[in-house]
Amino acid sequence: MTDISKSGSYSLGDRRVTRMGYGAMQLAGPGVFGPPKDHATALAVLREAVASGVNHIDTSDFYGPHVTNQLIREALHPYADELVIVTKVGATRGADASWNAAQSPAELTKAVHDNLRNLGVDVLDVVNLRIMGNIHEPSEESIEERFTVLAKLQQQGLIRQLGLSNVTPTQVAEAQRIAKVACVQNHYNLAHRDDDALIDTLGQQGIAYVPFFPLGGFTPLQSGTLSAVAEKLGVTPMQVALAWLLARAPNIVLIPGTSSLGHLRENLAAAELVLADEVLAELDGIGSEGE
Question: DSSP state, 177?
């Protein structure tokens, strides 16, 4: 079995997690909507992830909706003490599978209670405020009112730690004036590197950076350089892309998602892949060249 501890660990607020985690989004049906195509396999993926040493699972009650949280509860409840489940609020799903903003105080409060119920817990480990922005890219706007809602729910004992998703550096600073930020979850990967400076700033503050779409998301990473490096090393391009992220900064914590046991094992194996300096330099060129 892969030793994912070789990827190291990092602080997620006051909890320590392995840097190789798991994202549950793909466990829902097509388009992250409806039930999984294979219920038993979805449960098996979650159980194998945890058995392999993963102690950080990313989810949301708007995945499905409700599907991934209910699967996590069925597969893993009662949860191990070391397991950190990170969820997010700020959206809902329409009957047509649309993604809709849900960011009023009442909607955010309801979302927190929905997550509590479907995960089967009294307190949520971490809640990320997901700003809709330009869907997968942030846009400048005040988040004070929305983050204050979550900070009050934290004070009530319903949330242990707070995080942010799809935000700008200005919004991170705005949130930090309200409450402590444990993590930031933004779009970042080998080819999409707008957050380079933010990652380094957060690292100086001891804050985890959790890239979403680490493998390209709905449009998988494609690069001649990446493919050539992977072929040379005898691994998959996706394993190289994950290993590059682990090497990029110590505060990067990964949550690659899959609904396949085979792909789960491939992703976790990237924890043991060490890239030589010359390989890292070659891969760095992908972002700068816009491949």
Answer: T
68 pLDDT higher than 90: yes
Which amino acid, one-letter code, is at 241?
A
- What is the CA 253 to chain-centroid distance, rounded? 8
Is residue 10 over pLDDT 80?
Answer: yes
**Dihedral of the alpha carbons of 176, 182, 188, 193, in degrees to the nearest 10:** 50
β-partners of residue 161 are: 126
Sheet holding 56-58, edge to edge: 22-23, 56-58, 84-89, 124-130, 159-165, 181-187, 208-212
Residue keyed to tokens 């997901």 = 130
Structure-block tokens of residue 123: 């307190």
Bridge-partner residues for 181, per DSSP? 162
**Residues with a known catalytic role:** 63
Backbone angles phi, psi at 236, to 5 degrees: -90, 155
| pLDDT tens profile 128-145 | 999 998 877 899 999 999
Specify whether the CB–CB gap between 84 and 69 falls below 8 A: no
Banded pLDDT at 104 (limits 50, 70, 90): very high
Q: Are 246 and 254 in contact (CB under 8 A)?
A: yes
Give the lowest-confidence range in 82-96, 202-216, 239-253.
202-216
In order of 90, 162, 183, 195, 232, the CA distances from 144 in angstroms are 14, 13, 17, 22, 49
Strand duo 159-165 + 15-18: pairing: unpaired
- As a whole number of angstroms, the distance between CA 51 and CA 73 comes to 16
3-state secondary structure 110-140: HHHHHHHHHHCCCCEEEEEEECCCCCCCCCC
Q: What is the pTM of this model?
A: 0.95
Round the average pLDDT of the chain to a whole number and report it. Answer: 94
Q: Is the peptide bond before 78 cis (omega within 30 degrees of 0)?
A: yes
Q: What is the DSSP letter of 158?
A: S
